[in-house]
Amino acid sequence: MDALLIVFASGLISLFAAFAKKPWLVVSSAMAGLLAAIIVILNQLQTGKAFFDFLKYEGLLFDDLALVYSLAICVLALLIVGLGYERFKENPVHTGEYIGLLIFSTVGAMIMTAYTDMFMFFLGLEILSIPIYVMAGSNKTDIRSSEASLKYFLTGSFASGIFLFGLAWVYGATGTFRLWEIQAKIMEMESLSPILMIGVLLIMASFIFKIGAAPFHFWSPDVYDGAPHAVTGFMASVVKISAFYAFLKMFIVCFGFGELLGFWQNALVIMIIITMFVGNLSALRQVKFKRLLAYSSITHVGYTLLVFVSNSMGSVMELWFYMFAYGFSIVGVIGVGLAVNDQEDRIEAWRGLGKRNPFLAIVGIVSLLSLAGIPPTAGFFAKYIVFSSAWANASWLVIIALINSAISIYYYLKVIATIISPVESGQEKIKLSPLTIGVLTLALIGMLGFSVIVSWL
Amino acid sequence: MLLATLFESGVKIEHYMVLATALFIIGVFGVLYRKNAIILLMCIELMLNAVNLLLVAFSTYLGQADGQLFVFFIMVVAAAEATVGLSILVLLFRNTRSVDIRLFNKLKN
Predict the structure, then answer these.
(1) Which ipTM did the prediction report?
(2) N or C: which end of chain A has fewer CB within 10 A?
(3) Cβ of B61 and A137 within 8 Å?
(4) A92: exposed, middle or buried (C-beta count within 10 Å: 0-12, 13-18, 19+)?
(5) Nearest CB neighbour to B107, from listed A126, A153, A225
């Protein structure tokens, strides 16, 4: 609760700081708030005590799991706010609104990790989504940005409509909105009612929409492509973490036992296979950076969904490790994309990065290796953990996932080859601001030393 | 009182379920097939209102207030969503002078 209040307050402060017309003031208040939230969360994890304990509400329970997920969300949001600052030095008109919306969206993400009833989940989902609809369209004069915003808005609100319809059926079958009471009611049932099955399927479809897995993935390439770089990074990291954890929590707690478990897992297995192949095979022929990122993120959603079929106790922490490591890699590549700053957003514009700015080239190569899952990086350990725990329950699915990882190495290596190829004439060196260098260094530490840091905690 | 007499006169929970499902499906097909962005917004509202109807019916049927409480949350959030959606449409209208979604195809590869 403390961290939630701090982040919310820093969002308000950065909105009001916009009146001073100084972008650095807005960005630094937002970053200070997120940093304070990280420290508070770490403190609460160590001592187990919260300052605002008297503000308890049963719908919102910050247990250890919710805290570690909030920690990941705050760290990634901090890095993305730092990256976004570059843009505002040139065009400082809407800094306050942009940063404020980003912070409020982070608040929604934290609510989605801590919910224990459907009221809070629904509010968290909408607090997360509505600011992003606006942020995706924040390049007001660029028609592609507005188009991305409309597409995200339509698919997002369509998905929330489907979620609510499914929730209404579950409510009809169980008569409650609280997660643990739903679990108790379903356990009491002798046979599954069709009303409940419809509800579970619809809720699952809406989550599949939100995390962008096939067959409901078609919006994500367009939206990732049209949105500004930092917003794309936010959607690929923070939104995915919170949506995945909310998905896992709801389906383990409410529907994760007995006949019902097999019912939705069978549907999910088919979706996992389609997701991995669709993402990979479409990524092979992309020439634009953000589209490639979108398809690669669809593939990663496919790998991540393996934690849902592994049926192991540790799946929540495996998901955390995977998504956190993935978030660092996303911050790395998005940082490189922002610094290259090509109007057309072609991968070709990364040519000769090794000469133009060696630091950027290293960050880019390490994050691409981490996305591909090559050993010394965090992405490898994340994939290893997820695949090995899914092996016991669904080994043939893991084999399909391994084949897909092998395919994906091709398009990541193609980008790496572009980075280390020689400079063409007419390409200038790239200068980075100290803030960007700091953020990218943190991402680099995260990608290379993540497993060490986690084991040390 | 009115609802109670309706229940006695033979309107059962099944009728509400069928009606809400029909409204929801009309909304879904509207979102999938209409070309005018404002009508798309109205279809999404229709979907949410179908949900509201279903929740209220279940809430009355089960004899508890949770469902009706949820309806208020949905209405508030739907209003917020409609606000954002309409402002996105204004933004697009400034750029293209139209609200036909077939024109919004700049993001194809």
Answers:
(1) 0.91
(2) C
(3) no
(4) middle
(5) A225
Nearest chain A alpha carbon to B92: A146
Q: For residues B59 and B65, is the Cβ–Cβ distance under 8 A?
A: yes
Distance CA A431, CA A448 (A): 24
DSSP calls for B51-102: HHHHHHHHHHHHT-SHHHHHHHHHHHHHHHHHHHHHHHHHHHHHHHS--BGG
Cα A416 to Cα A420: distance, rounded to the nearest angstrom:
6
Q: Which residues of B touch A226 (CB under 8 A)?
A: 106-107
pTM beyond cutoff 0.90: yes
CB contact under 8 A, B96 and A286: no
Q: Is B36 helix (H, G, I), strand (E, B) or coil?
A: strand
Q: How far apart are the first and last CA of chain A?
A: 22
Identity of the residue numbered A378: A
Q: Report residue B102 as tokens.
A: 């077939």
Phi, psi of A6 (to 5 degrees): -65, -45
Please tell me the distance in Å from A28's CA to the nearest CA on chain B: 27
Confidence of residue A406 (pLDDT cuts 50, 70, 90): very high
Cβ separation A146–B95 shorter than 8 A? yes
Cβ <8 Å between A123 and B47: no
Rounded to an integer, what distance in angstroms lies between the CA atom of residue A375 and that of residue A381? 7
Say if CB A377 and CB A447 are below 8 A apart: yes
